[in-house]
Sequence to fold (294 residues):
Amino acid sequence: MSLLRRFGYGRKVHAGPGRRNPGSTPSNAVHDESTVLRLASELQRLSPERAEFLLTLLCRGLGEEIADSERYQAAEVLAGAVYPKYRFSEFARIFLEDDAFLTYYERFMDVGNWHSLDRKYTLDQLLKLTLHLEGDLVECGAYKGASAYLMCKAFRNSDCVVHLFDSYEGLSAPGNRDGAYWTKGALQTPEAVLHQSLAEFHNYRSYKGWIPNRFGEVADRRFRFLHVDVDLFQPTLDSLNFFYERVVPGGLILMDDYGFTTCPGAKRAADEFFASKPERIVMLSTGQAFTVKR
Ligand SMILES: C[S@@+](CC[C@H](N)C(=O)[O-])C[C@H]1O[C@@H](n2cnc3c(N)ncnc32)[C@H](O)[C@@H]1O
Fold:
């Protein structure tokens, strides 16, 4: 295989010229030549046009001298080879450098789980669009309080209240529109975790119970922001049914799980609900969707 020969395979594997200490064998070097050959040949099969670039870079090593843009390209090729459906977004987006936000996020998520960074960032930004409005905020599906934290923080200096609804017993039973991904009781977490997460705030209330049982307690309130994040058809529909008419004009309705193949019921509920309403649903590449109340 010519590509592999060009990289010296079939001969001994050497540390590349980019290594900081080219004379020594790095402790994580791959010594088993057949493994290297298999890996290289697999890469060439999966990504024929870009395998050479990736192999060149990997042979040089990924020391500090390698530019960020090159690392990004390497990651893109590798991810594209392993999981072609995943498309890397543009290099050098500012939000990935927002240390304060990254610190907030890491506080709530398991180590290495960056799956909702973009959604949390989007939520945080969209909240700004409601700063000038009247009304409270409400979230259906509060879990450990990561998104509630952003809602409380954005309004910590105002007198509006963030109302948080959750069973704290996890998801209700998925129905026949919900697909097979979720199971009853998934994402169960004690309410105490929410209170811990929000310990620095006094501007929230938590309503433990199955949606929509406790919605009546806020029937006389109006809302500038509704966050629906319950993953399933029925509680999504119940949340929209109850809160839509209580959202003030210009207020935002953000649905966290609308654009996920794992949550078909959430999309279906929103599509059915808004079919008879004047608002248009805007789906974002993050998987979220939002609309602005008329
Ligand atoms: C994906 S989590 C919410 C995540 C949270 N918004 C965040 O970003 O940190 C979904 C939550 O919805 C709650 N939930 C799902 N179905 C429910 C129902 N029928 N009634 C009450 N809570 C429900 C679950 O207990 C879970 O905490």
Observations:
- Residues 10-27 have pLDDT under 50 and may be disordered.
- Strands lie at 136-140, 162-166, 204-208, 223-228, 247-255, 282-283, 289-292.
- Residues 141-144, 146-147, 166-167, 170-172, 187, 210-211, 229-232, 235 surround S-adenosylmethionine (CB under 6 Å).
- The longest helix spans residues 68-82.
